[in-house]
Amino acid sequence: IAAAVEAWERGAAALPEPWQPQKPVLPVEGMRNVLITSALPYVNNVPHLGNIIGCVLSADTFARYCRLRNWNTLYVCGTDEYGTATETKAMEEGLTPREICDKYNAIHADIYRWFDISFDYFGRTTTPHQTTIAQDIFQRLLARGFLLQDTVEQLRCEGCQQFLADRFVEGTCPFCSYEEARGDQCDKCGKLINAVELKNPQCKLCRGVPVVKPTQHLFLDLPKLEERLEPWLEQSWAAGDWTANARYITRSWLRDGLKPRCITRDLKWGTPVPLDGFRDKVFYVWFDAPIGYLSITANYTDQWERWWKNPEQ
């Protein structure tokens, strides 16, 4: 408080010159370099105040604070555009998934511009950089033995002639009996669900009753990481500012034992899987979307790795 009073009495003239970063903003040796991202807003809606307050505004406030501190700051964001929710919205509006993404990306960008959100770059996940980086990460996981192949019992709608992605299925939660649970998660009890576990499943496209059929998919071998993950988490919990909720959920996953997690889907709208036998599939959006932070930065600057692979700065 004493330091704040002293600075106030000296007045604005005594403040250091504001830092003017180069364009594009890149890490600078000897400076505090801060990379800020907002959770990527999903593309299939018009943002409202709740979205902005819960997502981009807090990051914008922090970005402004960092710049006032003369820290070298990059703030990036963009729309999350793959996944079944986009396909569903496209069907509702009679457009292609690409047309839906183009339409709502522009709406998002205009609204954030109107609110004067101070992004250095606002991009999107449906870009060539996204494909390149996601497929590269996939190939590295494959080469290091972190992927499994397995046959999955999956719901198929004979009326629509397709396997149903998680969000194209609705039914009764097997854990809490909530009647509008999705095929990947119950919004009432929060538990992850395998779509075939749903009671009374329905196809959301035609309201038909799907049947269970086998299909081949690829999985992240998460149990292989468990031994290394636990000590890292203990160290991170001690040093970092994890929320109580994040700690609780993570501990519950470890307590129950990590399970292999499917990273492919029988869809057309997504990043293609670059592996023979799976080229008619795409990556599951929760494998693909977090890579959007990297690819959006790559669309901002071809030196993106200086932000994402540069722990010394």
From TrEMBL:
Any GO molecular function: methionine-tRNA ligase activity
The Methionyl/Leucyl tRNA synthetase domain, residue ranges: 34-311
Transmembrane intervals: none
PROSITE patterns xref list: AA_TRNA_LIGASE_I
GO aspect biological process, one term: methionyl-tRNA aminoacylation
Catalytic activity: tRNA(Met) + L-methionine + ATP = L-methionyl-tRNA(Met) + AMP + diphosphate
Keyword Cytoplasm: no
GO cellular component term of the entry, any: aminoacyl-tRNA synthetase multienzyme complex
InterPro entries linked to this entry: aa-tRNA-synth_I_CS, Met-tRNA_ligase_1, Met-tRNA_synth, Methionyl/Leucyl_tRNA_Synth, MetRS_core, MetRS_Zn, Rossmann-like_a/b/a_fold
Keywords in alphabetical order: Aminoacyl-tRNA synthetase, ATP-binding, Ligase, Nucleotide-binding, Protein biosynthesis
PANTHER family: METHIONINE--TRNA LIGASE (PTHR45765), METHIONINE--TRNA LIGASE, CYTOPLASMIC (PTHR45765:SF1)
UniProt record similarity statement: Belongs to the class-I aminoacyl-tRNA synthetase family.
Name this protein carries in UniProt: Methionine--tRNA ligase, cytoplasmic
